# Entry
Amino acid sequence: MKVLLLNPPGKRVYIRDYFCSKTTKSNYLFHPIDLVVLSGTLASKHAIEVLDCIAEKLAPDAARARIERFAPDAIVALVGSVSWDEDRAFLATLARPDRRVLAIGDVLQEDAERRLADEPWLAAALHDFTSDDVLRWLDGERDGLATMTVRRSERFGDGVGARAMSSDPAHMLAAHDSVVRDSIERGSGGARRGTFRVPVPRHELFPRAGYRFSFARSARFATVLTGYGCPYPCTFCVIGTLGYKTRPVEDALLEIDHVRALGIRELFVVDQTFGVSRKRALELSAGLAERGDLSWTAFTRPDTADDELLAAMKRAGCHTVILGIESADDARLALYRKGYDTAAIRAGVACARRHGLRTVGTFIVGLPEETEDSLRATLDFALELELDFLSLNMAVPRFGTPFRAEALRTGLARADELVMDQGGADAFLPTKTLDRERMLALKKELVRRFYLRPGYLWKRLASVRTAHELGAQVREGFALLARNV
Ligand code: SF4
# Structure
């Protein structure tokens, strides 16, 4: 079968992956990890192609022409709440009786049965990109697909009699002299713990150009995943709702050797909490250090980032750690179940700096408790920590999270508002004291005050190691500021 992995076109630079979607905060765009992982799984049985219309800046007509040239039998497409109206309009034009369109994305995580009922072009939704259920679906299986929501069509007798069997016209399609009734079922959910194995992802099928990563030291980089989900319960985060599974170290190293064979030495490790499985992280780091030619960026938690782990990561070529700081307020960290306090954050960031790692602090702003004072405290904390980079994520009620349930319960969000940007281009929620416009204006001011310090700019320039890094940081810096004026 010919299968296309598709990142659909968009009017803006959308990042749709890992059950999250947003516009880029500056100019960065990395490989959508869902498609990277699925590329190995699908290529194990099918002829596959990858078309990333965002990376290639393809308009819908050009994208359609490329797709028709490949003439896929099935398409696995990314979708996102940030671009849902565009995605559904585009993908509907690709579905045909002999071509099935499947999709994966945040907007399908909640009430997937309703989404499939509303979108007749959508044959199935994937809820775990590390699963091989999609292979079994392509083989015609419809039972026991734990990690998918599937549409099952059943034909009943002659048209007149069967028509009377369904009262829901959305689930019934007339076909010749019989009637086809759709039933839609969501699987029970796959394994949420333990180990998962996937065939080596086919990095070579992704475009060589078009991806940009602010922290990469060279233009060409690969995005890799060695652990899926997260064992922590932070209430605003979708990743914590996915369970937590890891790949065997030898599988991850096999993939990294495949990437090295393609001439790539720079990695973005998108595990959301590198080092949580400590023994495994140390083994993986030792394997990377043995290779001796890699440089990389990873996410970790401040309370995980201690001397032993960071020293091992540094030896393995890690140069930048992205740390979830979220707030300068201990009560708020506890309320959203971060599992650490500001003392742990101070210790983790200081430890990273001691080991010569650059630090990126991510904060969530615009939670209901946000005030002008708390935003000032956020900036003060970021400055006190001497972060190398500051990343602000605007609070949004991400599908499937406890925070969303609470926002729906209190009326801050509406269940039928599907289009939302998790990247901070807009404020989605008002806070208890700030309306959306004021919140957005304050967030932009905070970004400017952090980045436009003469001492900071000088330090940034002085720390640049490669010509690529200099160009990337200047481009990213201007793009970031352009979005925050
Ligand atoms: S630790 Fe990070 S990835 Fe894990 S649930 Fe919390 S915010 Fe999400």
The chain has 16 helices and 19 strands. The domain at 2-152 is CATH 3.40.50.2300 (Rossmann fold). Residues 158-176 have pLDDT under 50 and may be disordered. Residues 6 and 41 are 15 Å apart (CA to CA).
